[in-house]
Design goal:
Blueprint (H helix, E strand, L loop, with lengths): L1 H23 L4 H25 L1 H7 L8 H27 L2 H8 L2 H11 L7 H22 L9 H26 L4 H23 L4 H6 L5 H20 L6 H8 L3 H11 L5 H20 L1
Helix pairs in contact: 1-11, 1-12, 1-13, 2-3, 2-9, 2-11, 4-8, 4-9, 5-13, 6-8, 6-12, 7-14, 12-14, 13-14
């Protein structure tokens, strides 16, 4: 069941990436990010209020937000700081790079998770999983060669380094999620609610320095329907992902790889919607990445 939940998370993440590209294109990045996280927080707020005023009913329907200690709040704040940094870098890169370049680089996340899962959680991949691991690496390198044809020189483009940094931080957060869910025994809605709450506070601090004081930037911001939709889709994906992690048999390295099947939606559908270049050539490494995910998933 945890694998199927991972696939559901991948579906909503793929749709989330498409809407995110629409939200940030030609727009101010930080208020867009703030809007998406705020939308997710508002989606989860009724669950928290229901848990305060109608705890028995919320427990009955499985969406009860539990009381947690101050120490646990501290652990969630750390996750919020990691993901806020990752999103700031990722949104900036997405604004300046094609989605068919950004998404495959983000697909490198399972590599970092793979290594962390081995050394931290002592998860043991088999022979075919190793093949899938290196197949994904080679496919991402092939994407970099295609990117050069679009004028994107990977070694000289700062947004490439931004998306690589975002990918590393995102993978770190994925490893941290297993600790939060399985060691601290947090249910998905509790983790999601307080994570969104603290992330909103962090982004408010960033906006107060980089956006609110500047009228030119405030006027440049365009509200779009895709901004709240991004937040809703992200929280839906996270819910299925965290539910999968609740299974003690779930392997974080495999879940991370399964989530990357979202690339199919981003590259194929996104390439058509945003009319990006070299779509056919990008299908070759796309197949390589999907084959690598397949080997990791079904070996």
């Amino acid at each position: 069941m945890w694998m199927y939940l991972g696939l559901l998370a991948a579906l909503f993440l793929g749709l989330h990436n498409l809407c995110k590209k629409h939200a940030v294109q030609g727009n101010e990045v930080f208020p867009v990010l703030f809007g998406t996280i705020s939308a997710g927080f508002l989606l989860l707020l009724p669950f928290y209020l229901g848990s305060v005023f109608y705890p028995e009913y919320m427990q009955k329907i499985g969406f009860y937000v539990t009381d947690i200690s101050w120490g646990t709040h501290g652990f969630i704040i750390i996750k919020s700081m990691i993901m806020a940094s990752s999103w700031v870098l990722a949104y900036q890169a997405l604004k300046h790079l094609p989605i068919t370049i950004v998404t495959p680089i983000r697909s490198a996340g399972p590599f970092f998770t793979f290594i962390g899962a081995i050394f931290i959680y002592h998860e043991k991949p088999n022979f075919y999983q190793w093949i899938g691991f290196f197949l994904i690496i080679l496919s991402v390198l092939l994407y970099s060669r295609i990117g050069k044809k679009e004028g994107i020189i990977f070694k000289k483009n700062k947004w490439i380094f931004a998306i690589i940094g975002a990918t590393f931080l995102g993978a770190s957060s994925g490893l941290y999620d297993k600790f939060l869910i399985q060691s601290l025994i947090l249910n998905p809605q509790t983790l999601q609610f307080w994570f969104c709450f603290y992330t909103v506070l962090i982004l408010l601090i960033i906006l107060s320095i980089t956006w609110f004081p500047y009228s030119v930037k405030r006027k440049a911001f365009k509200f779009r329907w895709s901004i709240p939709v991004v937040g809703i889709l992200l929280q839906t994906a996270d819910y299925f992902y965290f539910k999968a992690l609740q299974d003690p048999d779930a392997l974080i390295m495999l879940l991370s790889a399964i989530k990357r099947s979202q690339i199919l939606i981003a590259v194929v559908v996104g390439g058509l919607i945003f009319k990006e270049q070299n779509k056919r050539k990008k299908l070759v490494p796309l197949v390589g990445i999907l084959l690598g995910v397949f080997l990791i998933l079904y070996s």
